[in-house]
Predict the structure.
Amino acid sequence: MMLPKLYSKIVLVTILCCLSCVYANAQFRLTGKVFGSGETKTPLAHVAVMNKTANDMTYSDDNGAYTITVYAGDTLEFDQLGYFSYKYFVGKITGPLSKNIILSQKKNVIEGVIVDGRTQYQRDSLAREKRYDKALGYEQTATIMSPVTSLYQQFSKKYKDLRKFQHQYADMEQQKFIDTKYTYDVVTEITKLTGDSAAYFMNTYPMEYNFARTSGALEIKLWIKHNFKEYISKPFSSTAIQSDSLQLEKK
């Protein structure tokens, strides 16, 4: 009677060991969000999420959310310009994986000034290109050269995310350039709007990239002044302007 029981225990232990090995080598999806340090914990978009072990990479979306394939024992790195990188080790996996990350922002410490003739936007843009060179350099394989690879890249989530990121990156770069020309300070100077009213005005009258690229400071001021005349003629604007005036009086 002892042998069947002993045999059953050996079989059970063997099965559990096999399942443990399979589970340890299984592929999982790690999900989560990336936030910036601070009281508000703002979600960070376009954070590079790199699986250093598997040489894989993805990026957080506009809401800071990310998804990446991992195995037990993989090392991940979260990286974005202006923040300290964060490393995360994937330990023993026992269930669904979720990990929220908080990146600490670097303080701007100026140790010296190098005059190179480039604007701050140009220097930041070059730094971003260097940071995301792998994703920006991706081009889908031509169908004629390698039809199987081309089809895989067309329908694979990984490569769909890469193409989506490239479009998002181009839009982001254009908006960052617009932000160097169409600033809160300039709007306040021309319109005397402040706070939420100035932000609302800027959202109501967004500036096109081509106009920002080809226009000088005077043209931009005239453009703001022209749009402000239209803005104050609308019913909703008078209440906002009065609210700004009351806030200035209290100060």
About this structure: The CA atoms of residues 46 and 60 lie 5 Å apart.
